[in-house]
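Message: A physicist's question: would you kindly supply an amino acid chain plus fold tokens?
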Amino acid sequence: MQFLVVQRVLGMLLIIFSSSLIPPYLVGLFYQDGATQPFIQAFIITVTCGLLLFLPVRTHKKELRLRDGFMVVVLFWTVLGIAGSLPLYLSGIYDISITDAIFESMSGLTTTGATVITGIDEMPHSLLFYRQELQWLGGMGIIVLAVAVLPMLGIGGMQLYRAETPGPVKDTKLTPRITETAKALWFIYMSLTVSCALAYWMAGMSKFDAVSHAFSTVAIGGFSTHDASIGYFDSTAIELVAVVFMLLSGINFAVHFVAFRNKSLKPYWRDAEFRTYVSVLLVVSFITIGYLHFTKTFDSTAESIIEGLFQVVSIGTTTGFTTAEYYTWPGFLPVLLLYVSFIGGCAGSTGGGIKVIRVLLLVKQGVRELKRLIHPAAQIVVKIGKKPLPENVIEAVWGFFAAYFAILALMVLLLMASGLDQETAFSAVAACLNNLGPGLGGVGQNYAEINDFAKWVLSLAMLLGRLEIFTLLVLFTPGFWRK
């Protein structure tokens, strides 16, 4: 482990992150909301800490090794999650505690969207903008992590994607140099953000709300500038804009890259993960809309279609926007929607969950085992698209699946031991581990009423879900620290 190299990178990250405090400060000046002081204080603290880390080791410019990479990735979200809480805590908004501030910051950066803040409509514009900006920055960080960094470490859902994709995307990076890859991803991410903001504005949002919601839509985050989320606007046009951009943001950004470069839509349909992603959302949408219609939950069929489609896409992509209290919907629908969030978005997207490609592979592996019962001696390969997958990839997915649900079960028990009821505990862990946000029961609207211990457990769940489990767990293995 090259601790000095890791320290240098971490210092640089903090210095760079401090610049993110300037835009909300300027927003506060523009709206004269009286909440600019916390951003000045947070900037000074963050940039000072960054310089104290960076300056003593600025000459250590060695290449990052594999173990260094794991450490940097984990520290990236952990340290920035803490640093990101400073403006919220220093603002003293609603007497926010350090626990709540870190929970809110971690939720923003991991694009989870779980909030402990109520009375959002009355918050100063600078703080509202900052919450949205946290999610947007976190979403971009996720894309670079999933498409450019984790594959080099040999982990992550993109390993599966590269195994099944022909052409240049099958290699470690989309382009020969990681800096070029990052630039390409930034361009796609920025283009989607600008397009989304313009669409929201044309659909009737104010400029401030349009930009703010574009940040959290493309990041699949779910934070809003209003307590009622997207439901505040009561607009079918705005809901449809959100549906389109949530769907686009849940697609593998590597597929966007190839489609953009080839100026063709064919790469989407040739991608097995994309076809599965769309199919799952369509099937669940039909079930949800049909059940809402026959139970007469809404006054008209059109309303059932719009509300059902919006909520399925929002929860299925792990965005977490709401237009209605879906957790009060009749029958099995709330649990069905929560289950869909376990699938989540595609690998290499801003979506959370297990990822569509892993679920697809689990299903194919299950089918193979059934065939083996009938033909024990047959050599049956698992294919995604037309590409056979090696056994070690399948074993890695099973390992991920086992670790995911073992952590889920353990955290549910911890939350129940802290006093939460079963429904609240299960849905809270599922929503945070899947980076979804809204849950059921006591966390249907927000997480303000749960105890501090539960908030720390859920903050860890957000981090584990965002880093795809193994990136964090590997730090706790003895072999990682051996020379």
Observations:
- The longest strand covers residues 383-384.
- The CA atoms of residues 17 and 80 lie 8 Å apart.
- The chain has 22 helices and two strands.
- Strands lie at 383-384, 387-388.
